[in-house]
Structure to design on (332 residues):
């Protein structure tokens, strides 16, 4: 049986929707054999290759798609932005933003499609800001570009929590801590009371980054609120327990604490940090420095706070059997 690209495309998209990327990729390859210069199929293939971590091939196919149809589809520029670094990444995201803005301007402002595009535009501007906060932080225009991108993002989607979280990072770098605290409060207010799974809640890693900002500003109660929220969602993350431990440690390190309070907080810190170390050894992590810092903090705490004596676990006789009521009745 012979297939056309029109036959194969629905199958590709169905497999992408169900996260069956190897199957989707097989159909992509077949479609490219039939139409190697189909810009849409090249883009979809690049998307699937990105998911399969075939980064060189993804980049190749996305660039081919752009060369064929540079003004069609903002998505390929978003994907290419993820595969690029520094100024090249920013330029790709910017092109994607420009195409999304054009598309959004053709829609009714209050339509669902316009709102979705607004969120995507805001997210892309956040990605561009992050690049200037990290890889391009020493560029002379970095601070100005961060302000510019975040202002645009607020105008497009004023209810996007990540915008205000990134603005807090910028304000911290400018040593404007009170303003940073205020915008972090605003960021949290947009999602903190939502149910788990709500689309407006930032992704897990973004909220971990939020905790780090809160700790830098001494907003410990806020940090605990976010950590508890994260724990309910997934409690098998090394960073979660490290940040729990670091929060308790910082609270206990306050000179105004009584010795009893300090001991209690640092004991809690040790429990959390030991959990982080166990998880690190079990599931691993890319952050070796966090593992080392956890062990250093545990060592510091052990010098001050005596380890609690654990009661030995009662040994269970493997041959011990519990007699049921039925057995008793049978004996009678």
């Amino acid at each position: 049986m012979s297939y056309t690209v029109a036959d194969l495309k629905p199958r590709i998209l169905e497999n992408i929707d169900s996260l069956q990327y190897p199957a989707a990729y097989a159909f992509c390859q077949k479609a490219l054999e039939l139409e190697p210069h189909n810009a849409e199929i090249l883009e979809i293939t690049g998307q699937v290759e990105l998911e399969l971590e075939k980064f060189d091939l993804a980049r190749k196919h996305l660039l081919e798609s752009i060369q064929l149809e540079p003004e069609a589809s903002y998505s390929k520029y978003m994907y290419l932005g993820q595969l690029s670094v520094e100024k090249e990444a920013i330029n790709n995201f910017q092109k994607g933003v420009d195409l999304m803005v054009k598309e959004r301007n053709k829609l009714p402002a209050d339509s669902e499609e316009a709102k979705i595009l607004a969120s995507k535009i805001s997210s892309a501007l956040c990605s561009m800001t992050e690049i200037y906060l990290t890889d391009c932080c020493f560029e002379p225009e970095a601070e100005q570009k961060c302000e510019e991108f975040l202002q645009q993002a607020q105008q497009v989607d004023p209810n996007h929590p990540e915008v205000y979280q990134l603005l807090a990072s910028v304000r911290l770098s400018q040593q404007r801590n009170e303003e940073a605290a205020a915008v972090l409060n605003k960021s949290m207010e947009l999602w903190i009371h939502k149910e788990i799974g709500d689309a407006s809640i930032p992704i897990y890693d973004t909220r971990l980054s939020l905790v780090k900002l809160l700790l830098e500003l001494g907003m410990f109660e806020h940090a605990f609120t976010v950590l508890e929220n994260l724990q309910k969602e997934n409690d098998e993350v090394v960073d979660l327990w490290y940040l729990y431990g670091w929060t308790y440690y910082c609270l206990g390190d306050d000179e105004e604490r009584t010795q009893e309070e300090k001991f209690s907080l640092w004991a809690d810190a040790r429990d959390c940090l030991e959990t982080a170390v166990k998880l690190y050894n079990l599931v691993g992590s890319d952050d070796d420095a966090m593992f080392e810092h956890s062990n250093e903090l545990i060592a510091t705490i052990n010098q001050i706070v005596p380890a609690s004596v654990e009661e030995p676990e009662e040994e269970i006789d493997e041959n011990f059997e519990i007699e049921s009521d039925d057995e008793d009745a049978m004996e009678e």
